[in-house]
Amino acid sequence: MKHYLILAAALSLAACNRDKAAEAGAEGMNAGATVTNDTANPTVDNPNVVSDNEAPNPNAPVMKFAEAEFDFGDIKPDTKVRHTFTFTNTGKSPLLIDDATASCGCTTPSWTKGPVAPGAQGTMEVQFDSRGKQGIINKQVAVRANTQPSITTIAIKGNVLTSATTDKPL
After folding, report:
1. Beta strand pairing call for 63-65 and 80-89
2. 41, 70, 96, 141 — which has fewest CB within 10 A?
3. What is the percent of the chain with per-residue pLDDT over 70, rounded to a whole number?
4. What is the C-alpha separation between 119 and 92, in angstroms, rounded?
5. What is the dihedral of CA 59, 65, 66, 71, to 10 degrees?
């Protein structure tokens, strides 16, 4: 009796799908299947996550910034401003920065080039050039190092004033 119920349920489901296929056409059914498959199995490309086949290294260096974001406040037009971020290697092996890339060409990072021993500090200086910019800015710097995860992000923000704003007396 149980097998008959399962068979009846499967046949009614197949009949229901056949009716939907007739209504939507083959393209409509395939498009729906693609959306369902993409939702059920999304492709994730996140550099901040250790991959499934990469075992976490308990001895890896760890980059711990004293602050992850700095606010310059008001920035005069056509000027360059700098901030130095300080980080500590709280891991168990030397930390080495491979690269640091900014989200915009107006932002330039420079960093400690040599290995940073466990417990020691290093720096990441970020310079922002306000030439040709105005209003609120929010720029990120992705720091790639031999840490897990391999990318750590820091940010700067501020408000670039217009020439008219800076000419007014306070």
Report:
1. antiparallel
2. 41
3. 64
4. 8
5. -170
